[in-house]
Amino acid sequence: MQITFFERFEQIPASDWHRLNTSSCPLVSYEFFKALEASQSVSGARGWQPHHMVIENDGIIDGIMPLYLKQNSWGEYVFDWDWAKAYEDNNLAYYPKLVGTIPFTPVTSNKLWSNKLNLADLFSSLISHCHQHEINSWHILYCPEIDSEVTPTEKGKSTTMAKLPEDVYLRHTVQFHWFNRGYASFDDFLATFTSRKRKNTRKERASIKQQGINIRQVRGPDITASDIDFFYLTYQLTYLKQGHQPHLNFDFFKHIFTHLAANVLLIIASHNDKDVACALFFYDDSHLYGRYWGCKTAFNNLHFELCYYQGIAFCIEHNLQCFNPGTQGEHKIQRGFEPVLTHSYHWVKHAAFKEAIKEFCQRECQHMESYQQQCRQALPFKVVV
User: Which fold has domain 181-320?
Assistant: First the structure.
């Protein structure tokens, strides 16, 4: 097995990416990653230096893992600012670190494209690489959970799954996802709510028409240049209201709207014949992913309608099974989004911090599992799912 690290995405053959990546999710498509680097939204100057791992056997590429050398922790959504501060307080360098993720995209997906290798098979290689190249840690974010237990087979024998090294630590976060349980309509979905929660949701949705707001869905080739311009304006406004510049530039979205148009949904709200708000979604044949939202003028409940209710209605209409509206947000619970655990894996080089970080991760996992159960008790359904 030969491992090479590439500093430019264009060095990875598109044919190998398509051969190894079997997911239909547009957020792990070749065009999505290409747009990130071609637009310079992801670059060394932005604190995201591409450092992609490519694994070969006998000249054949058997695995690809998109990786980035980071000089900050922006855009990751698995927060380690406190770790960096602890290093700084002890006059130690926390950066550079190596991160395996979809930049600015907290969506669980395979982070290694391979037909032969498992993610955990490469942990020791990542550790060796960090030791050899003065990289202080690595972090694989929003990946499927690695089963490291010995589990019985159907014939009563046992099989050993991938074993985690002792100094690789698991972290959890909680997200809120909507699941389609065969609903025939939005009202069919609401019928599973308690009376009070159902009444509140209908009141929120009715307020949109009462305020004179019209909503339209635009997909694929029907998305016009003016729609894209308006979306990017609202996207910028969201970040500027938070006090910093947008992560993704206009060139990135131009590429996406051109090359992934079949997987893009815009939901646009207008008032008095003027567009006032917009939400961007990606979708495939089973999932909807809510990504960005912004508005020029604030209206009551408009965020809930564009970002949640319209997405649920779209999933029901098109028989999509899961809706991931983005990270955080306990307000999603009462609207029928269920708490799910996400998984990430972490390794740090500095020996003095290993035990403290291990204990932190263990406590955090316990807390997140408890928090997930507490959130389940707050769901609006008549029967706890």
Answer: Aminopeptidase (3.40.630)
Instruction: Please give the single-letter amino acid code of residue 107.
Output: V
Q: Decide if 187 contacts 247 (C-beta within 8 A).
A: no
Instruction: Please give the structure tokens belonging to residue 384.
Output: 């706890």
Pairing of strands 338-348, 137-140: antiparallel
Query: CA-CA distance, 165 to 17, in Å (whole number)?
Result: 28
Q: Which fold has domain 2-173+341-375?
A: Aminopeptidase (3.40.630)
d(CA 253, CA 32): 10
Work out the end-to-end distance of the chain between its first and last CA atoms, rounded to an integer number of angstroms.
Answer: 45
Task: Please state, in angstroms and rounded to a whole number, the distance separating the CA atoms of residues 244 and 238.
Answer: 9
8 Å CB contact between 246 and 233 = no
d(CA 278, CA 136): 40
Contact 73, 137 (CB under 8 A): no
Vertex 3, ends 103 and 74: CA angle to 5°?
20
Q: What's the pLDDT tens digit per position in 233-259?
A: 999 999 998 888 899 999 999 999 999
Please, which residues have CB within 8 angstroms of residue 373's CB and are 6 or more apart in sequence?
Answer: none
What distance separates the 2 farthest-apart alpha carbons in the chain?
68
The model carries a pTM of 0.93
Residue count of the chain, please give it. Answer: 385
Q: Per residue in 261-304, pLDDT tens?
A: 999 999 999 999 999 999 999 999 999 999 999 999 999 999 99
Residue 350 corresponds to which tokens in the numbers above?
A: 């500095």
Domains 2-173+341-375 and 181-320 share a fold: yes
Q: How many CB atoms lie within 10 A of CB 320?
A: 19
